Structure formats: structure tokens, C-alpha cells
């Protein structure tokens, strides 16, 4: 009986050790994306105007990163909330956690360099190395023309700063671990 208990204890210890090693590997080895590029974007009126078109009508950033007025047809962003964030995506929508659209006005992105914003939009990795849930389609944005991403960055930098306190998103287990393996380097394409 003593021998069986020792074997069981060794097996349990081995499984626990393997779990610790696997968790450490996920935490230290992922997400596997390059560091943010050194990037300074020139915020010209043309770039901002094109970025406004892209963010409001093509990539529809403002649909999630603004408060929507669903009393009106198609739920347009409510005046004065453009980029302020706050939309909640949670279990009621069948998602594995609670995810918040962040504030992308200059108030919300003030601690991001242009290169860090570029990496965030195209790979889904924040400036502190956290992976985002792919509800924001960064896998698609990572295939756009870099100039389009520069335009979007110029536009969001030009928005009025709105102070909001948006909580951090929380993915359920085991999705919180799987998320770390999703981001990859962008594969940008140039317009022809």
C-alpha cells in the first residue's frame, strides 16, 4: 500500500510539474510577434481624412469603440462618444469571457507610440505584451496596406480626447491561455 501511495505521489508531482512548465512556456514564449516598429507618422490633413473614411466606413473601428444610438436606424455612434470605447461583448453573445472595446481617443492611447499602435492593430498585441481577443479582426488588419493603418492611426490621434474608465477584458479558462498563441506577425500587402 505504501508503494502505491509513493507511485501516486510521484505521478501527481510529475503532472503538476508538467503543468507548471507548460504554463511558464505559454506565459514566457507567447505571443510570438516582433517588437513594435520604430515609427513616426506624419498627421497630415489628407492622412487624417482618409483615416476617418477607413475607420468609420471600411474597418468600422468606430462601431465598437463608440457608444451606439440604437434608437436610430443602424445604431450610429452617439454624438460626443466617437472612439470613447465601452461596448461590451460577453457570455450573452456566446463569447468565452467579457471583452470591452477600449478607448481609442488620445486619452485612451496616450501611452502608445505610433509603432505600438501599428503593432496592436495588425497583430493584436498590446504595448505591454498582452494578446487581444480576435473579436477585433486584427488578423485581417494585418493584411492591409501599411499606409491605410498609418491613416487610421493619424485619424484616431486627431479625435477629441474623451476620459473614460474602461475595464480590462477577461477571457475564460482555457481561452485565456489559447489567446496567447493566436497573434502572429502581420503580412501586410501594398496597394497596386
Would you give an account of this structure?
- The chain has about 190 residues and is mainly α.
- It folds into two domains: about 1-30; about 35-180, no CATH class.
- The chain is built from seven helices and three strands; from the N terminus they run H-H-H-E-E-H-H-H-E-H.
- It has a three-stranded antiparallel β-sheet, with no helix packed on it.
- Strand 1 and strand 2 form a beta hairpin.
- The longest helix has 28 residues, at about 1-30.
- It is elongated.
- The protein starts with a helix and ends in a 14-residue tail after the last helix.
Report a brief summary of the structure:
By secondary structure, the chain is mainly alpha-helical. The protein folds into two domains: 1-30; 34-181, no CATH class.
Strands, helices and their partners?
Blueprint: H1 2-29, H2 45-58, H3 61-64, E1 88-89, E2 97-100, H4 114-123, H5 138-141, H6 146-158, E3 170-171, H7 175-178
Antiparallel strand pairs: 1-2, 2-3
Helix pairs in contact: 2-6
Amino acid at each position: 500500500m505504501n508503494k502505491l501511495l509513493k507511485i501516486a505521489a510521484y505521478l501527481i508531482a510529475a503532472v503538476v510539474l508538467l503543468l507548471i512548465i507548460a504554463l511558464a512556456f505559454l506565459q514566457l514564449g507567447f505571443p510570438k510577434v516582433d517588437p513594435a516598429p520604430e515609427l513616426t507618422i506624419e498627421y497630415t490633413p489628407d492622412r487624417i481624412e482618409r483615416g476617418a473614411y477607413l475607420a468609420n466606413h471600411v474597418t468600422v473601428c468606430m462601431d465598437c469603440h463608440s457608444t451606439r444610438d440604437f434608437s436610430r436606424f443602424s445604431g450610429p455612434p452617439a454624438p460626443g462618444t466617437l472612439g470613447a470605447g465601452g461596448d461590451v461583448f460577453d457570455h450573452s453573445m456566446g463569447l468565452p469571457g467579457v471583452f470591452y472595446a477600449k478607448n481609442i481617443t488620445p486619452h485612451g492611447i496616450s501611452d502608445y507610440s505610433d509603432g505600438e499602435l501599428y503593432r496592436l492593430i495588425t497583430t493584436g498585441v498590446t504595448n505591454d505584451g498582452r494578446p487581444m481577443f480576435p473579436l477585433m479582426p486584427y488578423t485581417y488588419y494585418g493584411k492591409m496596406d501599411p499606409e491605410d493603418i498609418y491613416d487610421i492611426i493619424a485619424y484616431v490621434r486627431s479625435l477629441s480626447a474623451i476620459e473614460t474608465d474602461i475595464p480590462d477584458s477577461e477571457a475564460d479558462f482555457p481561452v485565456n491561455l489559447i489567446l496567447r498563441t493566436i497573434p502572429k506577425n502581420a503580412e501586410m500587402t501594398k496597394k497596386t
